[in-house]
Each structure stands twice: as structure tokens, then as C-alpha cells.
Hints:
The structure is a homodimer. The first copy, chain A, is built from 16 helices and 2 strands. The longest helix of chain A has 28 residues, at 224-251. Chain A is globular and about 55 Å long. In chain A, strand 1 (121-122) and strand 2 form a beta hairpin. The two termini of chain A are 12 Å apart. The first copy, chain A, is mainly alpha-helical. The first copy, chain A, has a two-stranded antiparallel sheet with strand order 1-2. The A-B interface holds A 45-47, 49-50, 112, 115-118, 134-136, 138-139, 141-143, 145-147, 149-150, 153-154, 156, 158, 161-162, 164-166, 168-169, 171-173, 175-177, 179-180 and B 45-47, 49-50, 112, 115-118, 134-136, 138-139, 141-143, 145-147, 149-150, 153-154, 156, 158, 161-162, 164-166, 168-169, 171-173, 175-177, 179-180.
Amino acid sequence: MAARFAASPSGDLGDPRPLPPHATSEVLTRYRRLMEPALRQAVTSLHPWGAHMAAFTLGWSDIDGTPLDEHGGKSLRPALAMLCAQAAGSPPDSAVPGALAVELVHAFSLVHDDIIDSDERRRHRDAVWKAFGVGPAVLTGDALLALAISRLAATDNSIAMGYLSRALVELVHGQTEDMAFENRPWNGDDAVTAEEYSGMAARKTGALLGCAAAVGTALGGGSAAQAERMYGMGRSLGLAYQMVDDLLGIWGDPAVTGKPVYSDLRAGKKTLPVLSALAADDPAAGKLEDLLLTGDLDDDTVRLAADLIEAAGGADVTRELAARHAGLAVEALGACFPGATELHELRDLCELIVNRSH
Amino acid sequence: MAARFAASPSGDLGDPRPLPPHATSEVLTRYRRLMEPALRQAVTSLHPWGAHMAAFTLGWSDIDGTPLDEHGGKSLRPALAMLCAQAAGSPPDSAVPGALAVELVHAFSLVHDDIIDSDERRRHRDAVWKAFGVGPAVLTGDALLALAISRLAATDNSIAMGYLSRALVELVHGQTEDMAFENRPWNGDDAVTAEEYSGMAARKTGALLGCAAAVGTALGGGSAAQAERMYGMGRSLGLAYQMVDDLLGIWGDPAVTGKPVYSDLRAGKKTLPVLSALAADDPAAGKLEDLLLTGDLDDDTVRLAADLIEAAGGADVTRELAARHAGLAVEALGACFPGATELHELRDLCELIVNRSH
Lengths: 358, 358
């Protein structure tokens, strides 16, 4: 089951026109190409060993340094930054240092996250720590973060730097919450609440999307109020993003996501589909709780757990909430940049986040 | 043998007055007290789990959270930042956000360094990764770095932020060089040269000391030229610092340094005493090379290696170079802030760096 966008009364994205196939992926490609020369130049400035590991991290080369035709991630954040700069009335390349910075911070967070979660696979390849060792991976993450900060600092735009530093603090706070959740019980007074989940997701995933939008707005000459509004928009979008990630972490196709099937369930992650299912007034909720409390989960048990989560409505609730938060993000974009020609592409980006399969 | 300051013709610190006992440590205590409330407030803003690990890292509490009377490091960098702000004509607390930032970046680099080097002990206690696990330690380092950036970004001083980001990039570059040196041979065309060592040490250790001085100068209202000069001064001081660290890493008293005896020799580190000894025109140099090429070193062999390094003059050369670079730093301070009353304390700080036993 792939996570599909589910329009709901509160989650209507407000544009009934069908999305042309690959339109959004063309937008992403266009903006990635705008940013990439500066990103490659930045990576080249690293120590040769650091540059080698960074190129692997960004999907540009194999473990032995052989260049790859593919690229790494979806580059959603750079596109968001540059589209916001345009919506604020400037050419997209005004936001390149910001686009670069958020892409590098994103890469930093993935490299360190995979160490923290002991995740061995990322984007169909070995995680950086698995490929080069834990120490070199720690250093690679640090190098990517240092580059991000220095390239944005070079703009002398202290509003943009303020958003980057705010997002970094929130990101690490959210990662710490996520890690702390793993030691919390599935039931009882100390169980993780949906509210706590939302706070964690807004920080862990939303802050950097908010940063991308706010930094792009600031570098594009938008007002302080617009930048602040876009930071909030990104937090909504990040909530939607994380919820879809949760769905993919349980029901995503490993061939598409590049991660093992049911990986989040095996890891005991307190994701929204599980938390919603446990809180549901449904017999499946009780069965799920019993199952989770038994501890170590084998292949058959995780499959049964996934079915119980779906039966108790955990997937539907999560999909609806994701759509609602994406809808709020689209609303905020329209209110912040009324009449901007980039609103279509920004809306497509929000839809892509909710409709993606990886 | 403890590393002792060796005045040489080129390394004369230019002030024959004897250092009053504990004078410098009183200066360090005074400035640490000035910074500490803001540092504690910053740490408190972290996730409770992150704050717990950060408090352990900074030496404020034990692994179970019991508060300790002691403090962690020497707080050289905060003192340097605040003294430079004063020399530039402002009260020391104008530099508190900078002092805080460099202390946090220093702590971040130690936490990640201990993971990278698999060092189990730091300041007479378990390293953070040993105490809490590798994942939590990675996150603790990230949290300290994020805090550093956000507190300095809040000053809106883009010159100061420029120095912090520059130092971060250099620091990571130097750490990568240091790590890459470990895979280089002891002899032949690919052996590490003294020049390469200096570049690494200036980046790994000098950049953050330079950052402390430059950020303090900038926050204290000094000119851009003064800040740049102080960045260079800090690089000289950092070279001296790293050279003394190398001496302590071989001959330091484990009871004082908190690290195992001969630890750098066992780890095969390409430190200056070894590189200088290998390059010396002395029979001991050849014997040392033979010994190092045998590979794994047991207790007797490392002791013999240390003796050969000393016999070949590796310790003397390192001490003289450390004094020379500290002398250059003192000269730069005098030229940058002629007549400043803080010059005495700044000179004492430089002497402390060369004369320290841990």
C-alpha cells in the first residue's frame, strides 16, 4: 500500500486541476540544476577525503568514488527556498546560498540520524557509517553542517542565519525527542501522546522545511513578517511530510523507499499510525497493544501489527491529518504571496510531499 | 617529564617578570564566572535528555546527573574572547555570546573527536560516547554546536558569525587531515611532512582559538582589521597549543592529563615530536623508524620509542617551536592592541598554554 493523498473537508488543497505527470519532478530538476554548481563547488572545497565521503552522501558517486549519473534526494528544500525567493519578487538564484545550506543541513541530519538509529541502508545504498565507518561518518556530517553555515554566513543576511540556527536547534531537539520516545512505553500514563508526536515532528522535520521557505523569502527580499509566516508554513508542511514518512515506514514498498519493509515497526518507533491505532475505540487497538507489549517482533508479528494498525484506522487518521496539514501549508502560501505566479508550483510541491511513494 | 616552557632566542615572550602563582588560573576563573550563567541558561534550553548529557560533557554533573563542584575544561577560549573585547575597549560581557559559542564549539569537537578516535577517557572520566552510547554522543555534539550557532546568531553580528563559520570549516578540515595522517606511512615519499603537520594543527586547534580572539574583538567593537589580525594570532597560539598537547600526549602524567600514558604513540598519531625525531640527523632517528615500522607497540616498545624521540631531539624541537609560535602570538597581541591594560593577562594566557601540564 502506498500512501495516497486523501482530500478531506479540512485538507482540500483548493485546486481541482489534475497534476500533469512529472510536472513537479521537472520543477525539482530545474531548481536542483540551478543550485548544483554552487553545491559541487562547496563540496570541492573540503579535504579530498571529506569531499569523497560527501559526494557519496549526496548520491554523486559510489563508495570507490566512481561518479554516478543519478542524484541523491528529491531536493525539495532547495526548490522550496528558491520558489519562495521568486514569490517574494526576486530571481531564484538570489536564494542559492540558502538552498545550498538547507540541502547540506538535510544531508548532515541524515548521515548522523543513520548512526543514531543504526540504520544500515539509505536510498538503496549503504548508509555513510556502513560504507566508511562511524568516525568518518560523524566527521562527514560535521563537514556538511560547517559548509552549510559558512555558505549562508557569506551572504551577511542575519535574518536568514537566524532561521538556520533556529531550525538547527529545533532539529536536534526533535531528534532527541524521537530517540527518547523509543524508551517510552506503549501504554499507561507515560505513553507518548499525539500532541507530543506533533511537537516532535514539527521540530524534527518541520523546522528545516520552514527554514528553507523562510531563508528563501528573506534572501529574496521578502519582509520579516513574510519570512516568519513561511517558517510556520514549513512546520505544517513538515508535519505532513513526517506523517507520510510514517506511512511509508510501515507500508512503503522497499523497492521504492530503499528501506527494509516494516522497518519503523521493528525499531519500535512511536509513529503516528501506531499511536492513532492504539488510541482508537476499536477491538483491533487492544490486540495491537497486546502484540506490541510482547516485545521482539518477528516477520509474521510485524505483518500482523501492520494489519491491526490499518484495521484500527491508524493509516486513515494519519493520511487525513497529513492532508490537513499540507492544506494549511498551501493556505499559508496563498495568504503570504497573494497572486504570485509561483503559487501553482508551490502547491504542486506540497501535493508531492503528501503523494510521494519514497 | 612534564612539558616546560623553554624560552629560546626566537621564542622569548618578552616579559621577564615572574608569573605570580595561580594568577592566570584566577583570571580564567573570573571570566568563566562571567560566562557561566549564560552557558547554563543555554544548556537548560535543550531537551532534558540533551541537557543531561551536555551537563556531563561540560563537567557539571556525573553520569547519573549528580551535580559536581568541579568544572570541566580550562575555559581558555572564553577568557581569550572576553579579554580581546576589553582590549578593543568594551566591557568583557559584550563578548559573552562569543565566549559561550567558542566554548560550546570546543565541547562539540571534543565529544565527536572522542568518537572518531575511539578515545574512552576524557578529563578523568568516561568519554561521552562511553558513558551514554555513540548515537546519544553524536546528538549531544550536534546539540552543543547548534546552541553555539544560535547564541552567536542572536547577536546579529555578521562579522563574528563569519569567523565562527570559518573556524568550523577549518576545524573539520583539520580533523579530517589528522585522521587521514593515521593512514600515512612513517617513512618514504608519502610520509607526513612538518609543513603538513603545521597546516593541520593551525586548522584543527588554531582556528577555534583564532575564532575566540576575533569574535571577542568584533563583539567588543574592534575594527575588521583587528579582528582579522586576532584570527591570525589565534592560529599561532593554536600551533603552540597543539605542540604542547603532543608533548603531553607522550610524556604527560596520566594522573594530571586524564589520558592513558603514551596514548598518542600507541594510536600511531603523526605528532610533531615523532616527525621531528624521524627527520633528525641522529642515530636514534633510524632506531625509532625501525621500531615504528614493526607495527603494534607494547608497553616496553612505546617507552623505548618515547626515549628515542627524546634522544633524537624531538621533544626539544617541539618545545622550541611551541615557544616560538606563542611568542609570535604575544607579539601580534601587542601590535594589535598597543597599550591595552589587558595585554598582561593576554600574555599570561599565552604562557599558560605553553606551560600547562594538562
